[in-house]
Backbone:
């Protein structure tokens, strides 16, 4: 029941923040859409993952979004500099990077964060818990291998009673 309340509160807040419209008709439609999504999520048992509730540490998410936005900006500047330079300082590279977050959801967030950062694209997951990444320059992959992004994702992940087997 707590998970349903959390999901409902999160959906309502998100809907209000994203829509920014407070007319009666839109509020009613928003309430109906939130109710439908919560009902479907409950019916599909989306809120449970291996018997554990799925939730994130809210303050860590805000910190992560700020960090990720900064990384996206810095990567944009780097890609622009590389592409516009006279020497065309690019060296496309394809390499496997270890996906170190503890949960499946954390690994998906990690892979999506890699793709959101300009100059890198996640290709796929390998059976050995690695992520195949294409980068515009190998320096970017070296930064990924240092693990700063993975550490930020691990801070956001829910700390559940189980850990994946390593």
Residues:
């Amino acid at each position: 029941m707590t998970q349903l309340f959390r999901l409902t509160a999160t959906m309502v807040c998100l809907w209000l923040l994203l829509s920014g419209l407070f007319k009666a008709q839109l509020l009613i439609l928003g309430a109906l859409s939130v109710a439908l999504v919560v009902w479907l999520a409950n019916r599909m048992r989306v809120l449970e993952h291996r018997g554990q509730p799925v939730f994130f540490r809210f303050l860590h998410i805000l910190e992560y979004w700020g960090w990720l936005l900064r990384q996206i900006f810095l990567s944009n500047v780097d890609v622009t500099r590389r592409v516009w330079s006279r020497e065309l300082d690019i060296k496309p590279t394809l390499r496997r990077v270890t996906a170190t977050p503890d949960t499946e959801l954390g690994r998906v967030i990690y892979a999506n964060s890699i793709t959101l950062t300009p100059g890198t694209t996640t290709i796929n997951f390998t059976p050995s818990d690695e992520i195949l990444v294409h980068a515009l320059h190998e320096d970017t992959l070296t930064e990924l291998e240092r693990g700063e992004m993975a550490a930020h994702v691990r801070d956001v992940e829910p700390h559940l009673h189980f850990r994946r087997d390593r």
Confidence is low (pLDDT under 50) at residues 161-166. The two ends are 32 Å apart (CA to CA).
